Amino acid sequence: MSPRDQVLAVTPAYWDDACRHLSRRDRVMKKLIPRFGEARLESRGDAFTTLARSIVGQQISVKAAQSVWNKFSALVEGPATHLAPQAVNALDPLTMRAAGLSARKTEYLLDLARHFVDGTVHVADWQQMDDEAIIAELVAIRGIGRWTAEMFLIFHLMRPNVLPLDDLGLLKGISLNYFSGEPVSRAEAREVGEAWAPYRSVATWYIWRSLDPLPVSY
Fold it and tell me: Which domain, by its residues, includes 181?
């Protein structure tokens, strides 16, 4: 990670309460949570940059995404952790393509920047808005679907009760931990998740860790 990418991580204040709640309510969580000690969800960067990174990283490897991100973010002055939407909006599409972005991702990033510049996403109001209202705003941006919006709710806004049923890792983890490896449907996963409320994001994070002990951050 370069100095331009370094930023202080923030962790949720509710994490310890969530772990106690989940350990009382769920036999799998009671065994899983202690395996990962003090590791917990972390939020980095700002809203626009987090969403921009999610677009850059679509359908390519983590290594390739970091390479393209480094070239793209270098086009904009300031830290790579806090890109200014106005600066991205002013970029020439050909210059962005030369940094390794596809034509489609270039369009998506410019559309994202326009939504922030025009105020069609209500960033200042997100703390008071419910999850579904924020998802509705985000999926109106080209290149952002429900799964990306839910990852944003978990990893950036650190909302405690998100259950991303479109996430293949969550379904696989529920299969392995609750159904002895048998495939699970979305309905079955939703039923398991009902016991995790109001901390479904936290339980999801531990399910992911059961597949890959390395914590993910966006």
Answer: 3-42+162-211
